[in-house]
Specification:
29% of the residues lie in helices and 15% in strands. By secondary structure, it is of the alpha+beta class. The chain has three domains: 305 residues, Rossmann fold; 70 residues, no CATH class; 346 residues, no CATH class. A hairpin with a 4-residue loop joins strand 25 and strand 26. 38% of the residues are buried. Keywords: Nonsense-mediated mRNA decay. Involved in nonsense-mediated decay (NMD) of mRNAs containing premature stop codons. Probable component of kinase complex containing nonC and recruited to stalled ribosomes.
Length: 975
């Protein structure tokens, strides 16, 4: 280590050359870095014998060399580098005071070094709280050393007011001394030359002085103003230190001492220390830029301001008055050196403790040492408190000292203890709030709400850096409490409601506690239904159960949908790719385009046309597709499944007959305006009853008897798979006469309808019957063999029929409210709301699957399209139905699943009940929580073009419930 002497021509003295004295030049003080002392300085200090007063300089600085000695007129050598824990010594010959400059983390230069070291590793995140605690702990360690090796401690503050956080530092110093140092220091000093210090292990209760480098610039620097600032600051500091027991009436229990009736606060008012160079440069620039034109006298004054002293290059004038002389004398005497020497003299005179404590002087502890004794004392404490602390695993036989080395920093972190205490209080409050409000059994949504309430209760007390960890612990405790026999099953129903039964208790049937009000298949009886958890409960079991309680359901004629019939006992559900269902075309041939099938007729013109699928317009009114065809999923409407394809492509003869009938209709002599909106229906020769074939799948169609379809039939499902049960219902609830358009649906027949929304919509359809050309030769013979009134309608060619069909799109909400729609976006409000073309709006447009229920309720219930009412006309034609529901954002288009579409009998009231829940191959399509106003069809929709018309089959056995509406494939026209 090098030794420095301020102002010497020899800037460095090697340690081996300490015996050579060093002469002072230009400066009147010596400076060196502890522990090396120049020999000549040591000789002068020995001359003082036991009259050496040690003064410690600690506090803040904002210069590059961390120098706090500038107010004393001293500074370190230019080559000096500030380091944390370094002690720079200063001695002015002819005085009895040795000044120790402690370099700590409160100096900006050292603080910058530590921050740079932390930033060298970018992988470790910078934590300000832990960094500040570490910096304060290092400062407390150096401050402890100063309080034990110094008689006087001067705290330097760069600000203009007292920093209240210094009181916290004093509290930590008092705690560290009483709880750590006094546990091991007296015992470890007994075997050293420093044993004479006694049980208190310090030179004395050091007197604390406060030095403020800067005085407020806007205040006058007179004796009265400066003294007022000093007295005011003294009163503030004294009250704070006394209030927090830093200064007490006993020197044994007091950390530091404050003199009574003597100044212990000093403001440097006459010398600007550590000025802000940038701020000063900015002020000079502003003064130069905005300075007004100066007169000659002002320029002289500016020149005189550059003089080294007043009166320079000026003739002697009148003598100064007494007030000015007093001002100059105060400026000369008001220096920090004079301020310090007054306290040094108290220590030399032996009255250091007089006035500081309310006790007799001889009871106090005060030691004046010579340089050798003090140096040994300093070496011992510096090693115990500073050097060994750098290695927490330092070997020592004293258990208290080992605890000091390992846990000193942690013990000073009072904020961490404080925040931990608050978080503990908040944790208890949060857990109590959670447990007190928790029911016997509850689900995850209730758990989340209770946890949120517990978090709010926690935040009333818990704060600080540990709050995040405490909240995690709160969540873990609440989670454990919930899972300890209080957790619900929470199996989601098909309507997205969780099961409320206990999870750990075995139960055969799930129950969400949600009850829906639904109507039976025929719509006459309403009943309460539990929230379904599987597709069979939703679409089949409830309707079978309520049918037993309905007087009408047991009497109506039901259409029998094809279902799976197993041939083995270990049958299973077919496996599908959930995300990309494959289109199987190997068993039934390539699927046909819906556009090509529905393009066989034009609703606007009322004429049959046959065009290729690729030539059909994408958005024509008769087109049921709402999206372009996708190569992955095939056509949106698979005609082989829907049944229209089997009828339209039954044989080449059918196509030829259809084309020929179109030609006949085009060449007809009747050219009235009504013919433009007519639909042409071709009448074929009835087949013999004994040669009639029951409706069934085509010859190339085979169904699996070992695997069933897990969901509903849709357009891209495997042709060979059938469901276990029907999800649809088609029933004839009576003759057409039971409906009166004047009164609508009566409560005794259809219950639960909202007022004014219980009417069906009339639909007028114009037809023209045309006989097949190939059958003309057999027509008269057949007519003679079967005379009767019914056959008289077939006598003439070109007979025109005007059909009146009544159609109703019924919606039902979970509260049992039912209503009809008169448009895709309008609820029927009464009979007066029905116009001439009202029904066209519901049969020729996409009807939304879900619509907000108009019932008055705080909760916005969604009504679902559940039934389609059809009243067929009394005419020699059958109405054919083939509804298709598109859900899942166009991914699935569900159908009835019949190979041949059902035919509805004449002059009858039919009701098609749609599924309550829609499910793809293995993907449940839940209803939306709410509908977006911009996209009401997002939840699903019924495609247009579900109705068709065909000639009546006189051989059809309509009185057989099991075979109702089932006939061989025939030619028909889509309405």
């Amino acid at each position: 280590m090098h030794l420095y002497q301020a102002g010497s021509t020899e800037t460095a003295v090697p340690k081996s050359c300490k015996q050579f004295p060093v002469k002072m030049e230009m400066k009147d003080y010596y400076t060196w870095t502890y522990p090396d002392i120049p020999e000549n300085v040591a000789q002068e200090l020995r001359k003082l014998n036991c009259s050496l007063v040690v003064v410690g300089i600690v506090g803040r600085s904002n210069c590059d060399q961390a120098n706090k000695m500038q107010a004393f007129g001293m500074e370190p050598p230019i080559e000096h580098t500030a380091r944390d824990g370094q002690v720079q010594c200063y001695y002015k010959p002819g005085t009895n005071s040795l000044l120790l400059h402690f370099e700590t983390t409160y100096d900006e230069a050292i603080l910058g070094q530590v921050i740079d070291a932390c930033m060298e590793n970018p992988d470790i995140p910078f934590d300000f709280d832990s960094f500040y605690e570490r910096m304060r702990s290092r400062f407390v360690r150096m401050m402890l050393l100063a309080l034990h090796v110094c008689h006087i401690v001067v705290y330097v503050e760069t600000g203009q007011t007292f920093d209240p956080t210094l009181v916290t530092v004093f509290q930590l110093l008092k705690f560290a001394r009483e709880q750590h140092l006094m546990q091991f220091l007296p015992q470890m000093l007994r075997e050293t030359p420093a044993a004479r210090m006694g049980e208190k292990a310090r030179l004395c209760a050091p007197r604390i002085l406060f030095l403020f480098d800067n005085f407020p610039r806007d205040e006058p620097k007179t004796r009265e103003c400066v003294s007022a600032y000093e007295f005011q600051t003294e009163d503030c500091i004294y009250e704070l230190l006394r209030h927090h027991n830093i200064v007490t009436n006993s020197s044994n229990s007091s950390l530091v001492a404050l003199p009574n009736n003597k100044q212990f606060v000093f403001f440097n008012a006459h010398e600007e220390l550590h000025p802000d160079k940038l701020l000063k440069a900015i002020e000079c620039l502003n003064l130069a830029m905005y300075k007004p034109d100066a007169k000659e006298e002002e320029e002289d004054l500016e020149i005189l301001e550059l003089a080294p002293f007043e009166g320079f290059v000026k003739p002697f004038g009148a003598p100064l008055d007494e007030k000015e002389l007093e001002k100059q004398q105060y400026k000369k005497d008001h220096t920090v050196w004079h301020f310090l020497q007054r306290h040094v003299q108290d220590a030399l005179l032996g009255c250091f403790d007089e006035g500081s404590f309310k006790q007799l002087p001889h009871l106090g502890q005060f030691h004046l040492l010579n340089i050798q004794e003090w140096h040994d004392w300093m070496d011992t404490l510096y090693k115990l408190l500073v050097e060994n602390a750098k290695n927490p695993n330092q070997e020592t036989s004293n258990e208290d000292y080992r605890l000091f080395l390992q846990s000193f920093d942690e013990s000073l972190n009072y904020e961490k203890k404080f925040w931990a205490h608050l978080c503990e209080l908040g944790l208890k409050k949060g857990i109590s709030a959670y447990k007190s409000a928790a029911p016997a059994n509850y689900g995850s949504s209730t758990h989340k709400q209770l946890l949120a309430d517990a978090t709010v209760a926690f935040e009333e007390e818990g704060r600080g850096p540990q709050a995040k960890a405490a909240l995690a612990k709160l969540a873990a405790v609440c989670q454990k409490h919930w899972q300890d026999g209080r957790q619900q099953c929470e199996q989601l129903s098909l309507r997205s409601h969780p099961c409320t039964l206990p999870k750990n208790v075995p139960h055969d049937k799930h129950n969400s506690g949600v009850i829906h009000i639904s109507s039976c298949n025929c719509g006459r009886t309403q009943g309460r239904r539990e929230d379904p958890f599987n597709l069979r409960q939703a679409n089949y079991e409830f309707y079978e159960h309520i049918a037993q309680m309905c007087n009408l359901c047991v009497k109506v004629k039901q259409y029998q949908f094809p279902i799976f019939e197993p041939s083995v006992s270990d049958y299973r559900a077919a496996a599908f790719e959930a995300a990309f269902p494959l289109l199987h075309t190997g068993k039934s041939g390539p699927p046909q385009d819906e556009e090509g099938a529905e393009g066989l007729e034009d609703e606007e013109e009322g004429q049959e046309q046959q065009q290729p699928a690729e030539e059909q317009p994408q958005n024509s009114p008769s087109n049921g597709c709402s999206q372009p065809l996708s190569p992955t999923f095939g056509s949106d409407l698979n005609m082989s499944i829907a049944g229209f394809g089997a009828s339209l492509n039954e044989s080449e003869a059918s196509s030829e007959q259809l084309t020929h009938s179109e030609a006949n209709s085009t060449s007809s002599d009747t050219s009235s305006a009504d013919t433009e909106n007519e639909l042409v229906v071709q009448i074929q020769e009835p087949v013999k009853k004994e040669s009639r074939i029951d409706a069934g799948p085509p010859d190339n169609y085979s169904t699996s008897t070992t695997e069933y379809l897990p969901g509903l039939v849709h357009t891209v499902s495997d042709f060979g798979l059938l469901p276990l049960f029907p999800s649809w219902s088609l029933a004839c609830v009576g003759p057409s006469s039971i409906y009166s358009h004047n009164t609508g649906l009566q409560e005794h027949f259809q219950s639960g309808f909202l007022s004014g929304a219980n009417f069906l919509l009339p639909w007028d359809v114009q037809l023209r019957l045309v006989h097949a050309p190939k059958q003309q030769q057999h027509h008269s013979h057949h007519q003679q063999q079967h005379p009767g009134k019914k056959q008289q309608r077939w006598k003439k060619q070109g007979d025109r029929l005007s059909l009146k069909i009544f159609v109703g799109m019924e919606y039902e909400c979970s509260r049992g409210h039912r209503f009809m729609m008169c448009a895709p976006d309008r609820v029927l409000r009464g009979g007066a709301d029905i116009e001439r073309d009202t029904c066209s709006k519901v049969v020729h447009n996409n009807m939304p699957l879900y619509y907000p229920c108009p019932c008055r309720s705080q909760t916005n219930y969604l009504a679902q399209l559940m039934r389609i009412h059809v009243v067929t006309p009394k005419a020699p034609v059958n109405i054919i139905v083939d509804p298709k529901v598109c859900v899942g954002k166009g991914k699935y288009t569900f159908t009835l699943g019949s190979i041949i579409p059902p035919r509805l009998s004449q002059s009858a009231y039919w009701i098609i009940r749609l599924p309550f829940v829609y499910q793809g191959d293995d993907v449940l399509i839940a209803p939306p929580d709410k509908l977006e106003p911009d996209d009401p069809l997002a939840g699903g929709y019924l495609l247009p073009g579900m109705f068709g018309v065909a000639e009546t089959d006189p051989t059809l056995e309509l009185n057989e419930p099991g075979r109702m509406g089932v006939s061989a494939a025939g030619n028909f026209t889509r309405i």
